[in-house]
Amino acid sequence: MRAWIVWGTGVLAYAVGVLHRTSFGVSGLDAADRFSAGPSLLSSFVVLQVVVYASMQIPAGVLLDRVGSRAMIVAGALIMATGQLALALTESLPVAVAARAVVGVGDAVTFISVLRLVPQWFGPRQVPVVSQLTGILGQFGQVLSAVPFVLVLHDVGWTAAYGAASASGVLVAVAVFAVVSNAPEGAQVTGPRVTFGDTMASIRTVWSRPGTRLGFFSHMGTQFSITIFALMWGVPFLTSAQGLSSATAGALLTVSVVSAIVAGIVVGMLSGRYPMRRSWMVLAIMASNAVMWGIVLALPGPAPLWLLVLLIVVISVGGPGSAIGFDYARTFNPSVALGTAQGMVNIGGFLASLLVMQAMGAILNAFGGYSVDAFRVAWSTQYVVWIVAATGVVICRRKARRESGVRPRTLREVRARMRGQ
Asked: Is 367 helix (H, G, I), strand (E, B) or coil?
């Protein structure tokens, strides 16, 4: 029971972190009015946040290996609360941009720190499923931003909405400080003190492992599409280009969370049962995302509601699917370097997200707004990432298998084994 309480408190902190991360995406049009920002400038808010998030992953991972999850989660919650409070009070564009960067710093340390708790508190057979649950339950923060946050924003105002978000960060910091421990009593979870040179050597060693790079490309190709949709361009796409109301757009984001929960349970079970088929699951998720976007973007005008729902359901699988990348990090790296490896993997999806997000902002600006045609061109930039990520997965899985001395069983071998049982 103690393990579930510790983990649950960490997940609560992550969910509030997701609220902070996605709050600007659902208030993008309000931010455009408040700060007199066009599409390109508006995207720079979130792009800077993601740049900070991605650039902080390796330092955060190294620091996590040194000080443990508890201190990192508390620090992350307080940093994000500070950024949200600044955003609540300011009407200055430079201050607002800086505030989102601060949110990115706190966000960067939270997820990998919560994820680090899982192998410390749960057995090996439970780790894949609990890791998936960590990611998908944390996405309830997206529901918090899509429903109650938006209600407060529209009914009470900008300052009240972001002030309440800031207060939630302080509350979870107190809860984590009171409840969370890095590991069961007596377990060693942090590494020894090392020099800067030793740290750099460790980073190079972790990245040199094909399994780490396999996790990086797996995360890159599965996570970025739903991240961009939830973080920045989903609501403008649904309301301005597809003609949906803000309430309907918020409901569709809730559908995304429910879809991720169901998919995460399935992906976690399949990952634990068929570890040699994880890369095929990753490639299947990438392909399904590409096909669904192709269908929606090929339409000459707005898509029917049922098709938009199907699109969101499919791309939402990418969230739990990206957790396979962290499973690769755990599989191919020792526990003392797990934070560093997870940080490297986490860079993949967010690096792709920031590049595509920035490209989309520039394209929308060039086309003069949020039209169907503008979004058709903008969303098409995703295909570059899928090509790069799929190629990386295919190459790195071969090297990882060769290095570990294993190979997947053929279908004939599987059938022969089943007949022999």
From this structure: coil
